[in-house]
Inverse folding.
């Protein structure tokens, strides 16, 4: 496994860098990692611009050389950031369509741009599209996601910063929940997680619990009420 992200096998970053968009971005791990990666020789200048949004056409061919089952697209950015052109996004989608053996997992907080551009993209069966939702104010992102033609639509509720009573799980194919990790991690309360899990399981949707996060992450780990929840569509 080439990544510590438990719901994927590898990451592919044709875009690096981002800008803060909502509350979940406050302690962005990618922004924190970028300065260190900039100084690593094996990055070949990929982070030469630090955390500014930068497209990398030179890595578009990576999936064609890979043999992993699942690949997370842009763990260090957001493919639907306003500074990423439709032309480049289209190229990324073309590459994904050329490698049907790999399931590509995309996440965005910019659901408005996603739904705007979605009709102009080719939604290959191996492309899973997701949105990140960290608080109840942002559950509208799931509603916009459902308007796309993605074969698999999922939500990543990480970092989960509060309960999500407004989240309508109908029409979703996968739900991931995780607490915040790293410096300044904000706590995630068990009642929030249990409410989401119970609604998701009742709807027959696969549920993936990533980790508790916060100060107790090493102690509480990835177990929810004594059970490991690592379900996939």
């Amino acid at each position: 496994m080439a990544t510590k992200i438990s719901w994927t096998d590898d990451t592919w970053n044709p875009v690096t860098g981002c800008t803060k968009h909502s509350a979940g971005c406050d302690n962005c791990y990618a922004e924190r990692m970028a300065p260190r990666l900039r100084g690593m020789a094996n990055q070949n200048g990929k982070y030469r611009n630090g955390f500014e949004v930068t497209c990398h056409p030179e890595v578009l061919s990576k999936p064609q050389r890979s043999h992993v089952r699942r690949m997370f697209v842009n763990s260090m950015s957001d493919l639907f950031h306003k500074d990423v052109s439709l032309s480049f996004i289209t190229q990324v989608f073309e590459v994904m369509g050329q490698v049907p053996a790999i399931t590509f997992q995309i996440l965005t907080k910019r659901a408005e741009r996603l739904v705007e551009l979605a009709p102009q993209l080719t939604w290959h069966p191996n492309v899973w599209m997701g949105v990140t939702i960290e608080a109840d104010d942002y559950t509208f992102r799931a509603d916009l996601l459902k308007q796309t033609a993605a074969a698999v639509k999922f939500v990543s509720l990480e970092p989960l910063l509060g309960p999500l009573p407004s989240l309508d799980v109908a029409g979703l194919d996968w739900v991931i929940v995780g607490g915040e990790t790293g410096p300044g991690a904000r706590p995630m309360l068990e009642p929030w997680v249990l409410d989401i899990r119970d609604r998701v399981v009742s709807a027959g949707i696969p549920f993936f619990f990533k980790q508790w996060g916060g100060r107790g992450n090493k102690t509480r780990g990835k177990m929810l009420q004594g059970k490991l929840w690592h379900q996939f569509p």
About this structure: The first helix runs from residue 29 to 38.
